[in-house]
């Protein structure tokens, strides 16, 4: 192993090596210095079947390769040392699997903690959770009343900006729509959120930009596009070269208000003393950022305080390990998500989903929420137990040693590989092609025996493919089969070669050319497939 690494390092100018941790994990094993205890090269495998075949055909202890000398007898304790070495290697592999499982679990817990923290910050930005100062101790946060204004301060006074991008399904470099939805938390001060944030939804500002050059491209194969069905305002057609300015304007005051179609959304307003902090919201956020970069607009260069994803927020609320699509999230939250895959609609619905999960959790937190979580946990546990029981029952079916199910029947003949296989219930005839002409093309070639000559006139003469008659071919095949010749099954194709012209049936193997048959002049040809 060291020689191999040295050769790789020398050739590629690298510094590869084996660490002490890798040695402890069992990556390196030192075999006893005895020919009978050393591994033997069996070959190179490219599939699981290759590995099984090599293991099945592994040579025994008496095998000697060409030029290999006889092995000396084992010294005292060598066999026991080798056995302990193999047991230690197996134990190291099991320990490695356990360590990998534990690390995977730890990574999952860290990832869950990151998503939970994001959820709590989103509630802080919306005034639904208190801000814990350094050194302060707080009990569990009490539930809020959604019919009254948010009880806590709106942390950082942020603006949520959500972007959704639609591209053509056959060429994702062609961006057809950009939807922008914004929610300024300053507009929420003194306004009760309502059940699941219904009252706050009315304060969302939305824009829907359609790229003029691609207005004719509508998705329908993989998703049902509906660019004409923007439900929260009026769509704006913009040239591709101006898309960047229009989208960028929505990241500045007045943050997407539809009072102007000009790129500078802030025109005519007094600029703020300092830029507002922005929360970039999305569903699969990084995908939308990548699409915006194709429009030469990088939102990360704006005054973005952090990125948030409704897929992660919903996972925290629903305790899911997998992400959920926007449509399913809306259905679970009781939001009527009409005309999805319209970029403007998707952007608005994404903000609505964020408001719904944050307000719903804040309204239920405490004993009511704990009871709901316990019921969900019990339901998932029962579902998992039921699934495991069904699997155990399924695996147990088909195994029986009772005499009522028979005594085993007749012996099963061994297959060529030595593995017993059940006898086929019915032999299946293999279809064979006899070289008959294809009727769909003008000039064709045919080979074989067992067909007939089909005369076709061309310029006062006939051309065709000459084959033996079907009856004669059948008679020869039966004679060969009677003699037990295996060749008889392959004699449906001829051996001699010739050419026949005329209006009758030809003999011998032939090659010919033909034109399409005249209208209604197709002869009765019996093709054997």
Describe the protein's architecture and organization.
The structure is a single chain. It contains twelve helices and eight strands. Among the domains are: 124-130 and 143-267 and 274-373, 2-Layer Sandwich (Nucleotidyltransferase, domain 5), CATH 3.30.420.10; 435-529, no CATH class. The strands form two sheets. It has a six-stranded mixed sheet. With 529 residues, it is α/β, with parallel strands linked by helices. Residues 260-269, 423-470, 484-514 and 524-529 have low confidence and may be disordered. It is 33% helix and 10% strand. It has helices spanning 2-12, 20-24, 48-56, 78-125, 198-201, 243-249, 285-294, 310-318, 326-333, 343-364, 367-396, 470-482, and strands spanning 159-168, 171-184, 205-211, 236-238, 278-282, 304-309, 456-458, 461-463. Strand 1 and strand 2 form a beta hairpin.
Task: Give a brief description.
With 529 residues, the protein is of the alpha/beta class.
List the SSEs and their pairings.
Layout: H1 2-12, H2 20-24, H3 48-56, H4 78-125, E1 159-168, E2 171-184, H5 198-201, E3 205-211, E4 236-238, H6 243-249, E5 278-282, H7 285-294, E6 304-309, H8 310-318, H9 326-333, H10 343-364, H11 367-396, E7 456-458, E8 461-463, H12 470-482
Parallel strand pairs: 1-5, 3-4, 5-6
Antiparallel strand pairs: 1-2, 2-3, 7-8
Helix pairs in contact: 4-8, 8-10, 9-10
Rg result = 38 Å
Low-confidence stretches: 260-269, 423-470, 484-514, 524-529
Number of helices: 12
Shape: elongated
CATH class of the domain at 124-130 and 143-267 and 274-373: Alpha Beta
How would you spell out the order of helices and strands?
Answer: HHHHEEHEEHEHEHHHHEEH
Please give the order of strands in the largest beta sheet.
Answer: 4-3-2-1-5-6
**Full CATH superfamily name of the domain at 124-130 and 143-267 and 274-373:** Ribonuclease H-like superfamily/Ribonuclease H
SSE-based structural type: alpha/beta
CATH architecture name of the domain at 124-130 and 143-267 and 274-373: 2-Layer Sandwich
Tell me the β content: 5-15%
Mean pLDDT: 79
Tell me about the biggest sheet? 6 strands, mixed
Helix content: 25-40%
CATH topology of the domain at 124-130 and 143-267 and 274-373: Nucleotidyltransferase, domain 5
- Give the distance, in angstroms, between the N- and C-terminal Cα atoms: 57 Å
Number of strands: 8
